[in-house]
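In the current project phase, our protein records have gained a structure token line. A sample record follows, to show the layout:
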Amino acid sequence: MKRLSFVLLFFVAVAGFACLQAKNAGVEIPFEQLPMKAQTLVNDCYKGLTVKKAIQKTTDGLTVYEVRMSDKTIIEFDMVGAWNYIKSKKSDIPNSVYPRKLKKTIDNDFVGKRGKYAENDGLNYTI
């Protein structure tokens, strides 16, 4: 009887773990279901590229969206459509994704240099 209980508990644990993994992986959604701010950024800053996949993830009650582009760029947006991070494998991140003040600093102080990773925590930018 103990062996049966142990086997049953094991399968319940494995099933629970699989459900958690599936939940964290997110759900693929149409591009049109992204927040409008996110759609605008992708359409304006990544012209000529196609969206391969848009994913909606919910963790601890917070919803984030991940967009994967045809050049393997990954952009994560928060629930209102502001970008959290951008990872670019092949091409540089376009300057047009940054706020005007930061864009001016990049153009003046880092002439000819562009980043492949940028993070926005809502207050600060890391490039």
User: Anything to note?
Assistant: The chain has one domain: 27-126.
